[in-house]
Amino acid sequence: MGSSFFATFLVIFSLLNYNINGKVISQKGCDIFQGKWVYDNSYPLYNTKMCPFIENMFECQENSRPDKDYMKYRWQPRKKLMFVGDSLSLNQWQSLTCLLHVAVPQAKYISKRTGALSNFTFPAYNVSLLFLRDAFLVDIVHERRGRVLRLDSISTSKIWGRMDIMIFDSWHWWLHTGRKQPWDLIVDGNTTTKDMNRMVVYEKALNTWAKWIDSNVNPTKSKVFFQGVSPDHASGQIGAPFNKNCDGQTKLLGNPGGPHPAELVLEKVVEKMVKPVYLLNITTLSQLRIDGHPSVYGNGHQHNYSDCTHWCLAGVPDIWNELFYAAL
Ligand SMILES: *[C@@H]1O[C@H](CO)[C@@H](O)[C@H](O)[C@H]1NC(C)=O
Ligand SMILES: *[C@@H]1O[C@H](CO)[C@@H](O)[C@H](O)[C@H]1NC(C)=O
Ligand SMILES: *[C@@H]1O[C@H](CO)[C@@H](O)[C@H](O)[C@H]1NC(C)=O
Ligand SMILES: *[C@@H]1O[C@H](CO)[C@@H](O)[C@H](O)[C@H]1NC(C)=O
Ligand SMILES: *[C@@H]1O[C@H](CO)[C@@H](O)[C@H](O)[C@H]1NC(C)=O
Predict the structure, then answer these.
(1) Within 13 Å and on the Cβ side, how many CA atoms surround 179?
(2) Which residues pair with 56 in a beta bridge?
(3) How many domains does one find in the chain?
(4) From the CA of 246, how far away is ligand 4's center (Å)?
(5) Confidence of residue 206 (pLDDT cuts 50, 70, 90)
(6) N or C: which end of the chain has fewer CB within 10 A?
C-alpha cells in the first residue's frame, strides 16, 4: 500500500541526491517538485485508524467526510531522461544505470535494446533512463548517389524532443575517415561536397542542433544538457594532450595540456543559444585522466588493440554523473 510513492520518491531522490558509501553527493532536488498529480488506487499511504494520535482537526474520514478520492493522488515528478550521442554518451549512460542500481539494489530493472535505442527501466519506480545512439545528431540519408550527411536536418528530434531531461554529446565520429566514415557526401542547404574541414562541419551540425533546441524546447518542461568533449589519449588525435598514449598509464597527468579545439567550438555554439543549455564542462578535468581508459583491457582484452577513447567503469564517467546531478 502506497509503496509506489516511496519508490518514486526514492528513485527520484536517489537520482538527485544519491548516497554512496554514506556520502551525500548533491542536495539540489528542485526537479522533483515539477510534475503532475496522477490518480493511483494504491493510495492513501495509510489508513487513518492505523495512526492513533492524529489530531481531530485533521481526521476527515472519522469526521464523516463522504468522499475519498482526495486521498488517491500521487505526485509524479518528471522522470524520462535520455542520453543522445555516440559511445561516450553510452559510457556515461551506463555509469548512471550502475550508480542507480547500486543505490537501490533490491529494485527490479529491465534493460532492453531495440535498434539504436537502449532503455533501462525501474518498473516499480516508473523511471526510464534511455540512450539513443546517434553519433552525428544530424541526419545521414541513403540516396542513389550514396550516403549523404545532411548538415541541415535533424530528424531524430522526433525521438528525443519531448524528454524531460536530455543530455547530448557528439564529437568523436566527426574525425573518422576511410572505412569508418559512414557517409559519402556532405549536403548543407544547396551545397554538396565530398568533404570539408571537420571542425567546420562539426560546428555546422551543432548549429543545426542548437537551432532546433532554440525553436522547439520549452524550458519549463525540459532540461537540456550537453556533455563536453571527452578527450582522447591516443597519440595523434586532435586534442590529445602531449600526444601521449594511454597504454600502461597509472598516474594522472599534472597538466591538462591546453584547451581542446572541439570543446572551444562547442562552447561557442552553446554560448550563442537562446534557450538555457547546461554544458557539462568535463573536458579539462578528463584531460588529466590518461590513467582512466581501457587501453588493452577493453573488448575482451585483445592485446592488439588499445582503447584510449572510452573510459573504464567504475571510473571517470561516474564523476561526470556526480557533476551532472549537482547541476540538476
Ligand atoms: C522503456 O521500457 C519500459 C519497460 O519495458 C516501457 O514501459 C517504456 O515504454 C519504454 N520506453 C521507451 C521510450 O521505449
Ligand atoms: C508511468 O509513466 C507513464 C509516462 O509518463 C505514465 O503514462 C504512467 O501513468 C505511469 N505509470 C505509473 C504506474 O505511474
Ligand atoms: C537553394 O536553391 C533554391 C532553388 O534552386 C533557391 O530558391 C534558394 O535561394 C537557394 N538557397 C540558397 C541559400 O542558395
Ligand atoms: C570549462 O572549464 C575549464 C577548466 O576549468 C575552463 O577553463 C573553461 O573556461 C570552462 N568553460 C566554460 C564554458 O565554462
Ligand atoms: C586482434 O586480434 C583478433 C583475434 O586475435 C582479431 O580478430 C582482430 O581482428 C585483431 N584486431 C586488430 C585491430 O588487429
Answers:
(1) 0
(2) none
(3) 2
(4) 24
(5) very high
(6) N
Amino acid (one-letter) located at 208: T
Q: For position 2, what pLDDT does the model report?
A: 34
Cβ 111 vs Cβ 120: under 8 Å: yes
Take residue 304 and report the three cell numbers written for it: 592488439
Do 307 and 201 belong to one domain? yes
Query: Is the CA virtual torsion 300, 301, 306, 312 positive or negative?
Result: positive
Percentage above 90 pLDDT, the chain? 67
- Beta 19-20 vs 23-24: how paired, if at all? antiparallel
- Provide the angle, in degrees to the nearest 10, between the axes of the packed helices 87-103 and 316-327: 80
Q: Which of 235, 228, 239, 241 has its CA nearest to residue 289?
A: 241
Please list the residues that pair with 150 across neighbouring strands: 139, 187
Confidence of residue 34 (pLDDT cuts 50, 70, 90): low
What is the domain extent for residue 248?
Answer: 79-327
Q: Which ligand is nearest to the CA of 303?
A: 5
State whether 37 and 149 are in the same domain.
Answer: no
Please state the φ and ψ torsions of residue 125, each to the nearest 5 degrees. Answer: -100, -10
Task: Give the three-class secondary structure for 300.
Answer: coil
The yes-or-no answer on residue 87 being catalytic is: yes
Q: Which ligand is the nearest neighbour of the Cα of 126?
A: 2
Using the atom order of ligand 3, give the atom closest to the CA of residue 189.
13
pTM of the model: 0.80
Lowest-confidence segment of 18-27, 58-67, 205-214, 245-254 by average pLDDT: 18-27
Which residue is listed with cell 550563442?
272
